[in-house]
Design the sequence.
């Protein structure tokens, strides 16, 4: 087993035959078990981290419910989890910027640094990316992990470990705002008030967007969006026949042109609405991946020169996320709605809570 949790050995014992490191393993459809997790040797540029906070992502739930997410298929038992922060327990001999006892937020993807995207600085597009809890790479819902030190970011004194774990979903919003060039002259529409829609709302405000409208099918999540600073909210339907009427309502709510729309759901209806609502010359950024294929009004979109851009994960976002959290420009604490410990029963309850949705936004493990 190497860095990033790549494994051909499955789970195993800890040092000297002791089972001192346990992890939450996805062992089958709707089946999670806490089992031993053998760590790889500590390399010269690695650190060993004791996990303290791990959040549940929608992709984690998707793997649990279907054993796949997009083209990634779980074919053998896999440790789950990738939104994480912890405390350094041991550092490799070449690690200079971290010490045992340091609290760190962890970027979960290890790129190759040799391919063209990596050399161009777009390492998030690396075809050989080893990303926590993406088959066949093990995740981070464990007592301890080994990870490259350069992907561990020291937390400011006023930023908690839970907030550190939230840097991962927040990074999606930050990367989306960078891709869409959000600033003080860009009015923003957000389709979807789930966890990613809400962190995109927080990021867009931190980047200076003067007016933000967010829509969703769920009234509770819209109320959360309002408390987080959305200027206007309103409930939409799932019926694609309602797009034209809802676009008129969006324009009225915005009170100006929609410069950038973030589709944080990724369905036929949300993307059609985004393309229709965005002003001529504006941008639509596809963030969510609800549908892999869509039928969309691209000809009228092209005639209005609306740019369509996509994002995949993130790159070089942790320093800015931590600065936003340190300065108070972004407060992610209200997003953490449920907390669980690390027992078999609590792991099962946590994933059931996250899968149900309802008033659950971010479910967090405290290890």
Sequence:
């Amino acid at each position: 087993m190497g860095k990033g949790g790549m494994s051909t050995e499955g789970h195993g014992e800890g040092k000297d035959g002791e089972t001192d490191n346990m992890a939450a393993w996805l062992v089958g459809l709707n089946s999670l078990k806490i089992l031993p997790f053998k760590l790889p040797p500590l390399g010269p540029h690695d650190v060993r981290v004791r996990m303290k906070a791990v959040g549940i992502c929608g992709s984690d739930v998707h793997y649990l419910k279907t054993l796949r997410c997009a083209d990634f298929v779980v074919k053998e038992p896999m440790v789950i989890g990738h939104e994480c922060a912890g405390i350094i327990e041991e550092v490799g001999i070449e690690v200079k910027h971290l010490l045992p006892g340091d609290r760190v937020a962890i970027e979960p993807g290890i790129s190759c640094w040799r391919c063209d995207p990596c050399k161009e600085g777009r390492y998030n597009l690396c075809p050989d990316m080893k990303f926590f809890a993406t088959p066949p790479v093990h995740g981070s819902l464990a007592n301890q992990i080994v990870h490259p030190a350069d992907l561990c970011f020291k937390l400011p004194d006023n930023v908690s470990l839970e907030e550190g774990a939230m840097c991962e979903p927040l990074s999606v919003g930050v990367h989306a705002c960078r891709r869409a060039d959000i600033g003080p002259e860009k009015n923003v529409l957000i389709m979807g008030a789930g966890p990613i829609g809400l962190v995109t709302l927080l990021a867009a405000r931190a980047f200076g967007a003067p007016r933000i409208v967010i829509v969703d099918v769920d009234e509770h999540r819209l109320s959360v969006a309002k408390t987080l600073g959305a200027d206007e909210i309103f409930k939409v339907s799932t019926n694609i026949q309602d797009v034209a009427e809802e676009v008129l309502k969006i324009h009225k709510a915005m009170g100006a042109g929609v410069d950038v729309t973030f589709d944080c759901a990724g369905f036929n209806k949300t993307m059609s609405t985004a393309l229709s609502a965005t002003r001529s010359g504006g941008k639509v950024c596809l963030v969510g991946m609800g549908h892999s294929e869509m039928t969309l009004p691209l000809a009228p979109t092209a005639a209005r020169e609306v740019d369509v851009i996509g994002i995949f994960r993130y790159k070089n976002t942790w320093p800015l996320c931590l600065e936003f959290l340190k300065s108070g420009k972004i407060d992610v604490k209200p997003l953490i709605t449920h907390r669980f410990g690390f027992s078999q029963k609590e792991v099962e309850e946590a994933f059931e809570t996250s899968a149900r949705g309802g008033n659950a936004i971010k479910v967090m493990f405290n290890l």
Observations:
- Residues 174 and 203 are 6 Å apart (CA to CA).
- The radius of gyration is 21 Å.
